[in-house]
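Please check this:
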Amino acid sequence: MVSLMKDNTRVNHPPAVHLAADNRPLVAPIYQSVKFSLDSVNETVRLLRHEREGFFYSRSSNPTLRQLELLLAELQGREDCLLTGSGVAAIAACLLSLCKQGDHVLLFVESYGPTRYLVQNIMARYGVTHTLLSIEDLTGIDQVLREVPTRLIVFESPTNPVTKIADIEHLLAAARHAGALTIMDNTFAGFHNHGQYPIDIFLHSLTKYASGHGDVMGGAIIASADLIGSMRKDINTLGPTLDPHAAFLIQRGMRTYFLRYERQCANALAVSRFLSASTRVKRIFYPGLEDHPQHLLARHQMRDFGTVVSFEMESGHESAGRFCEALKYFSITASVGSTESLVMPPQLLGGHEFDATQRRASCLGPGTIRLSIGLEDPEDLIDDLRQALEVAY
């Protein structure tokens, strides 16, 4: 029967297409809809009271996002997950939801720059205090947690950019004794690492390895159902929602996550061995090398050693800049985890606000360079690094 509705009504109420129960799409569709509807007021009220399953408004939940949330939570060995529009949004949302005036946060010199900025500047405006230590200063960590009531310990491992390895067991024992929550930015290590430890909250920038292709941004907060439940309303109200199409692209990227990560780790090890043998490299930071000071700790805690290789050139900014500009297969840009290799020169690595003691702890020098290793042939990458070192000197 032909509908009698007028055309300007028809375009807003198109015919529905229903799949039979035994006729499923192999790839889940993108639910690119802000709003979802139920047939009755009663059921809508029940949905909003969390008395039944369903979706109402995509800022709170969306089927495309939910599928990705459940996948990431399972991979990290936790119960639930909240997605955000970027990795930094995940960090900010966590801090704003979990902290109040008078709380104290312990964080580290080696932490991601925006994490430090959030705690030291934005959270400080609202009366949240902090202590900044080196992730290697276990004595200092113990002392602070004994002397200062602490709400959160925020750390990462491997650290960005010089891949220090946090002693997770020590940190967690100290945190438990002090009654502090632990938040780990697990972006560099990936979803397959560190889930065996009773870390309260994992953060990930999905822009990196989850997406893997440098074409979409996102963040994830992964924790127990109780912790996610306690933060959900705050974070929904802050509104850092991931778009459904971005979630779909990240879900697609996750299909090749392990293949990419394994190959990139193998390439990173090959690159790090080449650099460690070069007379023009003063110091190399890659926990997969046996002479890395935390190699055994990394081997104990992780299934692999990551895809980021950092090193210090013998001379400073000038030669480091020439080196980066001479590279053919490494693009000078931010981020890590893409299929292509990337390089960050010392001028872009941050830490400019550090005092002399903090800079020594950070291991950032005038010739520090960070490489994010991609999927290219390792021989091509090594040849490129060799010729760039020649140009630099």
In short: Residues 59-252 form a domain with the Aspartate Aminotransferase; domain 2 fold (CATH 3.40.640.10). The two ends are 80 Å apart (CA to CA).
